[in-house]
Amino acid sequence: MKVYIKNKVFSIGGGSSVVNENQEPVYNVKGRVFSITRVKYVCDLEGKRLFKIRNKWFNFFVHKAYIYDANKKKIATVKDKWFNTKGEYFVLGYKDEIKIQGNFFGLTSQILKNGEVVGTIRRQVSIIADGFELEANEEDMPFLVALVIAIDNITDKKYKKFI
C-alpha cells in the first residue's frame, strides 16, 4: 500500500494530509497550535486519535521525538545520532527493533523492522511544503505514518523550521 503524506501549507498547528494512490483520505494529522514540542495527532477518518507525536522539549546534540498510543502510553522514542552524517534514525522502546536507514532528506530511505525492510519512504521535493510517499503493508501503516511525522518533526526542530 502507498500513502502520500503532505504537510499543509496553510494549517494552524502544522497539520498534514495522508491520502492513498487515488488521492482519497486515509488518515488526518492534526497539529496543536503554539506547541513548543510540535505536538501532532494521527487520527483515523472519524477523528479517533491513533497516535500522538511530540518532540523532546530541550535537545543538546541528539534530537528525539516520542510516539504515544491512543491510551497516552509512550510506545516509542525516535532519535538520531550525535553526528548523523548518514541520516539514520533509531526507534527505541518499541516492541520490535526499528531503524530508518538512508538519508531521510535524500530521496529514499528504508524502514527496517528486526533487520527486514518493511517500508520505503520517498521524499516528494517541493518548494512549498514537505511531502513523503510511504510504501508499506497496510497493517503497519498507521504506526509508520506516525514514525514519518516524528522524523519530520525532529528535522524541522533541528533545522529551526517554525510551524
Summary, kept brief:
The protein has 163 residues and is mainly beta. It has one helix at residues 141-158; strands at 2-7, 16-20, 25-31, 40-43, 49-55, 64-69, 74-79, 89-92, 98-101, 108-113, 116-124, 131-136.
Summary keywords:
11% helix, 163 residues, mainly beta, Porin
Residue runs with pLDDT of under 50 for 5 or more positions: none
β-strand number: 12
- In angstroms, what separates the terminal alpha carbons? 29 Å
CATH class: Mainly Beta
The structural class is: mainly beta
Helix content: 10-25%
The CATH architecture can be given as Beta Barrel
Question: Within the CATH hierarchy, at the fold level, what is the topology?
Answer: Porin
Explain what this protein looks like in three dimensions:
The protein has a single domain (2-158), classed as Beta Barrel (Porin), CATH 2.40.160.200. The chain is built from one helix and twelve strands. It has one helix at residues 141-158; strands at residues 2-7, 16-20, 25-31, 40-43, 49-55, 64-69, 74-79, 89-92, 98-101, 108-113, 116-124, 131-136. The protein has a twelve-stranded antiparallel β-barrel. Strand 3 and strand 4 (40-43) form a beta hairpin. The longest helix has 18 residues, at 141-158.
